[in-house]
Amino acid sequence: MKGLLDKSQSNMLPEHCVSSILSFTSPTDTFRSSMVSSTFHSAAESDVVWETFLPAEYKDVLSRVVTPLAFTTKKELFLCLCNPVLIDGGRKSFKLEILSGKISYMLSAKELSISSQNDPMQWSWKSIPQSRFSEVAELRTTSWLEIYGKIKTQILSPNTTYGAYLIMKISNSAYGLDSIPSEMSVEVGNKVCNGTTYLRHEDGKKQQMECLFYRNRTEVLRKRVIEGIERIPSEREDGWMEIELGEFFSGESYEEVKMSFMEVKGYQSKGGLILEGIEIRPKNHE
Prior knowledge:
Layout: H1 7-10, H2 15-22, H3 27-33, H4 38-43, H5 47-53, H6 58-63, H7 74-81, E1 85-87, E2 92-96, E3 103-108, E4 113-114, E5 123-126, E6 136-139, E7 145-152, E8 160-175, E9 182-188, E10 191-197, H8 204-213, H9 215-222, E11 229-231, E12 234-235, E13 241-250, E14 256-263, E15 271-282
Parallel strand pairs: 10-11
Antiparallel strand pairs: 1-2, 2-3, 3-15, 4-7, 5-6, 6-15, 7-14, 8-13, 8-15, 9-10, 9-14, 12-13
């Protein structure tokens, strides 16, 4: 919109024409254009504009929300959906990116397939205030860790590159999670994105001692792991950590996205992973 119309020209256009123009832009452009003139400000509030920024299936999403949203205009609805809302009985959350209007989802731990998830000796399910979901999964002990999730591209924004992220914490009593790299993958059709990561404990001294003690064994175990991009967990603004499982392109065709995180080749006991879910969101460069 920048440079398209100066202030005098914008005041000459009928409001419905300005609304029509804005509907072909983006939420970012519309927010900026509302400051150009009174005509643009009024047009930028129009339901005609904000209807185009809502996903085509937004009414279906609204029918699945856990807590009904309060809104009177399409702009208010859009802004409501720019914050995560729980859907499908609280097993997923839905969100729109405020700058682009693109769709993001998070699948809760309950929505994932986790090895031995119903065995109370290996996993405990509990509520913690830091999570948007009613329950998260905490790994007590296992020698075989597998986490799988899936989502269909038809519920995502088309022609968009997405990243899939494991959302988790590592407890102070964690052990065995970084003895061998964990393997990650994102698969769509015949395209597979592989990666590896170490779930590092925050206690650096403990980490260093374990590396020295198990160095020879660790080098042997590393050779069992598939090759892939090594990724590092990072801190999130919400207090959780995330690790990118991989990326994929959501095109025009409908496909199933399969995401996985596993460590099944070390055979050592491990515990202390707290799992919130898997987030699927547009990459930053989109």
